[in-house]
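Quick one:
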Amino acid sequence: MKQGVNKLDHNAAAIKRWRSRLKRAMSALDKLERQRKRLEAAAIKPPKPVTFAEPVMREIIEQPKAEAPKVETPKPDDNLAIPTFLQRKKLDPVAAEIASQQEATKRVKARGRIDKMKAKRRGDLKRMPLSGKAALDAIRNG
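Output:
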């Protein structure tokens, strides 16, 4: 009797699984059919003609295009030095202090990464924590 119940449960699970797959497939088919209808409608419908709301806009758009002004290329003898307002200056003291703090933080973080890597090589990270008397001795003796 137990084996029959097991088969019933298995059958119910299979039905549920296939129904969810069927629902997903039907949703995908519906989505594709709606997309096909939109594409067919767009292919049949001629493009809208461009209409102008105001006659002024029509005149502006229909005017002949003016020629672009010619840009002179710099000659080799031109002064190509960086202008003074674009030249970089030394950092003010506050910015220099912030930069030095950032460098110090980078060094501390790098030191921590290196220490962790060395501990991993030694196997310190995989050891079980001390307990009992050994833990008390470690606390007392450092």
